[in-house]
């Protein structure tokens, strides 16, 4: 076992070391010309167990992905140079072809001159009869040549005028074949060959010009266009034919774009304009690609020119759309317009991928800045709109107006418990955040899901700041009052303050995570099939689950800030008076031993107030947090902890108890013990006794006992049994809640200074 663990550790360390190396060094072993896969597998896997082999497979898969990504980046980085080189090669091929034709013509002329010189030399030294015979024969041959040339020229003129391209092409080919055959015949007159070649060359040039003119006309039908391009290519001018074909489609595209733009200016509607324009642009690019492929096939030089042209047209289209549609919507936070526009364009663009044209990166590169501008403007719009409503928010919980309008009366009655009740500003924040996250779904190709969640979290944090400002006496509120005045409507009543907590908790716990789940699930549905299979083998949970958990924790931390401010507000209201004096001080306990008579035992007034306050808040929380009782329980736990922790950390209180002029006597110790037991019992009955609160109470009791023992008093001899504290606390709870029936005992439970004796109640009850 130790050997296997040591071997796994060494393999893991080596794999980790390799993963830290640059990609070039990690691929060095595979680039060697002598690389042997079988030998690599044997040396690596011969002594491995199943776990190590799986680790190696995962490492090789990651290396394959990294290599593919590196190759893709390299291709994109050098693509412009590749296209430029292809263009130069194409131009060079055209020049070589022209040079070959020129050399052929020059060779024909040289051959003809050579023959003419030879014939002229034959005239010297011959008799007059032979000269006359040859002259007569030559006249006859010249007349035949002129006759053929005239017939050939007239035929081509007719065919050219009637635009019978195939027949013109066949006639030229036939003429070239005749010239080639005649040049191989010794009896052929050289003048005949020269004249014939010159005529064919002239007609060939006329035909090429006519084809170029036909291709350049926007009114040319598509079938005629392809025939003209094909004929021009057969004439040996393929680069020119390809360029003219792309120019033809570009002219039609620009003309139609101007018409569409003018129609949009008169009728408006940016979304319709984007849809129509996108459909026309990419359909035109698709037709151009189809024409190029049908005539030129997949020759690299022509394909590169087509790709360059398509990229250029896509850029022009995207910039036009960005200027006339996206710019205005991005400035006003119109993310929905940007999302719809991008989705439509990418949908049309994806249809070209079957023809080898991947133009979506061009669109994303140009549209990204506008989409991101709309993204940030939308988040600012959420904050500004929510702040504007918070100024006049009455902090009364109600159903969303949209939900109320869309639901029927029967549906509303059946789902009243499931529909969220929020105040007006929270309803606005919720609706705008939901729309924002829904608009992000079509933008998954820009990978905005993470920034979108972060933006919503920041907007929620700002909204929680507004809720904290609405609490009376909060530090944020005081800062604003000193500066520019209160910017939000204050929550004066406890019900309104609970509404603040309901807003924050419902948004953070349910509404926002639900919207985020839709966004993340949509993103997960688009992952690669291989990644889906791997996730199914490993776990059924979504891959975004850790990020979502961390995001929810950030939302919860914002809610905790509001909850802590709420607890601090009510704790200070209980502990301090309006004049700034404290209701909870050491004098309550140290002064009890000034009298020799045993006091009437009952919880101190401050803790009666605490009980009454907590009971009232618990009743309100039950009505506000329907179905969310756990949040209410945790809230009351934190409030109790805030109060008792203040007592535990109050240095002035403990200095007077432990080192003051009046030591803590037996009656004071018993009263402090009773107060803590009273808090412990009613918190336990209300189910808001936390472990930390229980421990703090026990620590306070222990510290008080130690303080009394330091004065020479035996605490355990003066303190009654635990049952006594429990019984007095239970009676006090019944009396304070009005549930006790103790005969003649009367008491105003609302009075914090009441001095009813629970001990007398116990004796009466006995």
TrEMBL record:
Ranges of residues in domain Exocyst component Exo84 C-terminal: 147-359
Swiss-Prot/TrEMBL keywords: Exocytosis, Transport
Basic and acidic residues compositional bias, start-end: 537-550
Gene Ontology annotations of biological process type: exocytosis; Golgi to plasma membrane transport; intracellular protein localization
Pfam families listed in its UniProt record: Exo84_C, VPS51_Exo84_N
Translocase listed as a keyword: no
Keyword Transport attached: yes
InterPro entries with a match to the protein in the record: Cullin_repeat-like_dom_sf (IPR016159), Exo84 (IPR033961), Exo84_C (IPR032403), Exo84_C_1 (IPR042561), Exo84_C_2 (IPR042560)
Domain of life: Eukaryota
Region feature (Disordered): 523-552
Cellular component, GO, one term: exocyst
Extent of Polar residues compositional bias: 523-536
Family: Belongs to the EXO84 family.
Protein's UniProt name: Exocyst component Exo84 C-terminal domain-containing protein
Organism: Linum trigynum
């Amino acid at each position: 076992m130790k050997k296997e663990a040591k071997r796994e550790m060494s393999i893991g360390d080596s794999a980790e070391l390799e993963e830290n190396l640059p990609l070039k060094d990690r691929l060095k072993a595979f680039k060697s010309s002598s690389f042997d896969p079988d030998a690599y597998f044997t040396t690596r896997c011969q002594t491995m167990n199943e776990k190590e082999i799986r680790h190696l497979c995962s490492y090789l898969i990651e290396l394959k992905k990294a290599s593919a990504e590196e190759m893709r980046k390299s291709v994109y980085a050098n693509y412009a140079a590749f296209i430029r080189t292809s263009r130069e090669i194409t131009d060079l091929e055209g020049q070589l072809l022209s040079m070959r034709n020129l050399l052929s013509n020059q060779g024909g002329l040289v051959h003809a001159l050579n023959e003419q010189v030879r014939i002229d030399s034959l005239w010297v030294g011959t008799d007059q009869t032979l000269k006359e015979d040859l002259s007569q024969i030559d006249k006859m041959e010249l007349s035949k040549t002129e006759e053929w040339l005239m017939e050939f020229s007239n035929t081509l003129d007719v065919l050219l005028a009637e635009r019978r391209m195939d027949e013109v092409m066949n006639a030229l080919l036939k003429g070239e074949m005749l010239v080639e055959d005649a040049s191989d015949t010794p009896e052929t007159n050289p003048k005949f060959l020269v004249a014939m070649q010159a005529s064919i060359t002239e007609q060939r040039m006329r035909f090429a010009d006519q084809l170029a003119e036909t291709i350049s006309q926007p009114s040319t039908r598509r079938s005629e266009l392809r025939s003209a391009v094909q004929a021009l290519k057969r004439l040996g001018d393929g680069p020119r034919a390809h360029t003219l074909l792309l120019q033809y489609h570009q002219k039609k595209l620009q003309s139609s774009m101007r018409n569409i733009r003018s129609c949009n200016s008169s009728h408006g509607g940016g979304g319709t304009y984007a849809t129509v324009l996108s459909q026309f642009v990419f359909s035109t690019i698709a037709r151009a690609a189809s024409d190029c492929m049908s005539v030129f096939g997949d020759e690299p030089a022509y394909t590169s020119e087509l790709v360059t042209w398509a990229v250029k047209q896509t850029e022009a289209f995207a910039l036009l759309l960005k200027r006339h549609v996206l710019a205005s919507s991005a400035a006003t936070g119109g993310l929905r317009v940007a999302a719809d526009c991008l989705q439509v364009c990418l949908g049309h663009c994806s249809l070209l991928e079957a023809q080898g044209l991947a133009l979506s990166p061009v669109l994303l590169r140009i549209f990204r800045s506008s989409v991101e501008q709309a993204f940030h403007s939308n988040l600012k719009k959420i904050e500004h709109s929510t702040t504007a409503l918070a100024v006049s928010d009455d902090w009364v919980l109600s159903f969303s107006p949209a939900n109320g309008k869309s639901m029927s009366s029967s549906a509303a009655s059946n789902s009243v418990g499931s529909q969220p009740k929020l105040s007006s500003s929270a309803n606005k924040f919720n609706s705008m955040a939901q729309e924002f996250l829904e608009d992000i779904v079509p933008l998954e190709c820009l990978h905005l899901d993470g920034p979108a969640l972060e933006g919503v979290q920041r907007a929620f944090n700002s909204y929680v700041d507004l809720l904290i400002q609405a609490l009376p006496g909060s530090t944020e509120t005081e800062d604003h009052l000193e500066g520019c005045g209160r910017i939000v409507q204050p929550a004066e009543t406890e019900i309104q303050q609970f509404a603040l907590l309901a807003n924050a908790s419902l948004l953070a716990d349910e509404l926002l995570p639900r919207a985020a789940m839709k966004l993340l699930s949509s993103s997960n549905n688009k992952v690669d099939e291989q990644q889906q299979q791997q996730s199914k083998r490993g776990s059924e949970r979504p891959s975004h689950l850790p990020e979502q958990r961390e995001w929810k924790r950030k939302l919860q931390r914002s809610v905790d800030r509001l909850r802590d401010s709420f607890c601090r507000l009510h704790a200070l209201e209980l502990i301090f008076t309006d004049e700034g004096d404290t209701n909870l001080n050491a004098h309550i306990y140290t002064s009890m031993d000034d009298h020799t008579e045993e006091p009437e035992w009952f919880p101190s007034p401050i803790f009666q107030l605490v009980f009454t306050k907590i009971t009232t808040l618990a009743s309100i929380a039950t009505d506000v947090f329907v179905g969310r009782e756990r949040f209410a329980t945790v809230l009351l736990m934190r409030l109790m902890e805030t109060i008792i922790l203040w007592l535990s950390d109050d240095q002035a209180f403990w200095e007077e108890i432990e080192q003051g002029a009046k030591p803590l006597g037996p009656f004071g110790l018993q009263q402090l013990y009773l107060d803590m037991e009273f808090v412990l019992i009613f918190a336990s009955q209300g189910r808001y006794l936390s472990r930390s609160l229980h421990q703090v109470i026990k620590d306070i009791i222990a510290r008080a006992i130690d303080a009394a023992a330091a004065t020479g008093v035996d605490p355990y001899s003066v303190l009654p049994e635990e049952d006594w504290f429990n019984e007095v606390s239970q009676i006090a709870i019944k009396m304070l809640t009005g549930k006790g029936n103790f005969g003649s005992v009367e008491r105003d439970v609302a009075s914090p200074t009441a001095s009813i004796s629970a001990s007398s109640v116990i004796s009466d009850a006995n």
